Amino acid sequence: MAARSLEIGPAGIRAARTIGILRTDRGLAQRELAARVTALGRPMSNTMLSRIERAQRRCDIDDLVAIAQALHVPVQALLHSSATP
Q1: For labeling, which of 24, 26, 30, 56 is most exposed (least CB within 10 Å)?
Q2: What pLDDT, in 10s, does the model give residues 36-50?
Q3: How far, CA to CA in Å, does 73 sit from each of 7, 37, 46?
């Protein structure tokens, strides 16, 4: 059986970019956002967040929900192409 591709699709790339945009718009370092996500019960290191933002790591739905909560935005805001603070 062939290994499943880990390629990140267009929605994942949009979410990754939007997370980075919203984080920087709020003046948060990756370490700060990762700490917020961890405080919400979803352990995340700044390295994991960095890899998500660079679309080098898949962001599962639980990570996406926690990141949205930590950024104080609805999950849908992370899935759209234009990020607004």
Answers
A1: 56
A2: 999 999 999 999 999
A3: 26, 13, 20
